[in-house]
Amino acid sequence: MDRFITNYEGVSLWQATRSTVSDIVQFVIDENYKHHQGGVTHDDVYLKETFSVLMEELEMFDYSSTIVARDFMGEIVGVIRTSHWNNNPHKLPMQVLFGEDVVTPSELIACYQHLWHIGRFAVKQEYSNKGMLFKLLMLYAISPIFKYREGVLLAETDAKLLRVMQALSIDARPLSTGREYIGSLTIPMMATKAGLTPFLLNNISMAFDLHVEELSHRLPERVKKTESEQNYPFGYCVVGKTTRTLPL
User: Fold this and answer.
1) Which end of the chain is more exposed for a tag (fewer CB within 10 A), N or C?
2) How many other C-beta atoms lie within 10 A of the C-beta of residue 85?
3) How far apart are CA 90 and CA 163, in angstroms?
4) What is the CA radius of gyration of the chain?
5) Does the predicted TM-score (pTM) go above 0.70?
């Protein structure tokens, strides 16, 4: 059974278990085709991509944390997966798609200490207009990066989503021109912890009732909140006497 995290404006967030992986993959593939191809056609390409993504997700499950958003009926309406790559024996999805020369993991780890990868980011069309679910999933996905002093994030994103991320103050830097993947032009990108911080501070109150200890004297009051009941996943947050803190 998936692990409950929290509720937010009619949506519940869950940490996925292995038994949910096939449903997650189906959702991600279908939403990509709906967004970028206008619908789902179960042709040979679709079936091949679905099988490939399923095998990849099962292989990477033990090295990842996947968050699933569900509506009041329990249906999946959003997904995002975060992987810590320092001790991950698998090849980066970015290298599989774009070639090994697109990034050098060892160099990134030497420079930033911690290497993270975000994948399978999808939001149901009906929930994409206001951007609430996008921000909520992204906040939980990037929160483990802020456990450490340094970090860098890699992802493969379609061109439209990349522009949205940049508009939301995420310093997402393209690494190549991209290629067609799961129904859309997909571009490899990276963002450092510093490049993610403005987005975190602008939206932190959506996901976490906390303050940021190190910089609390400089933060606006809207991000300094007292503790409320939430099931914070994966040990990302430190429980204090009065607040839950996410270190910067």
Assistant:
1) N
2) 20
3) 29
4) 18
5) yes
Identify the CATH number of the domain in which residue 131 sits. 3.40.630.30
Measured CA angle at 153 (ends 103, 160), to 5 deg: 90
- Per-residue pLDDT, averaged over 211-215, amounts to 49
Task: List all residues 6 or more positions away from 145 whose beta carbon is below 8 Å from its beta carbon.
Answer: 114, 116, 151, 153, 193, 196
Q: Give the pLDDT band of residue 39 (cuts 50, 70, 90).
A: low
Tokens representing 167 are 């508009």
Report the pLDDT value the prediction gives residue 38, as an integer from 0 to 100. Answer: 59
Number of domains in the chain: 1
Three-state secondary-structure class, residue 88:
coil
Rounded Cα distance, 76 and 148, in Å? 31
Rounded Cα distance, 137 and 121, in Å: 8
The string of pLDDT tens digits covering residues 181-191 is 766 788 999 99
- Give a three-class secondary structure readout of 21-57: HHHHHHHHHHHHHHHHHCCCCCCHHHHHHHHHHHHHH
Q: What is the extent of the structural domain holding 128?
A: 3-245
Residues 150-176 have pLDDT tens digits of 999 999 988 888 888 889 899 999 998
- Alpha-helix runs per DSSP H in 113-158: 132-142
Q: pLDDT grade, residue 92 (50/70/90)?
A: very high
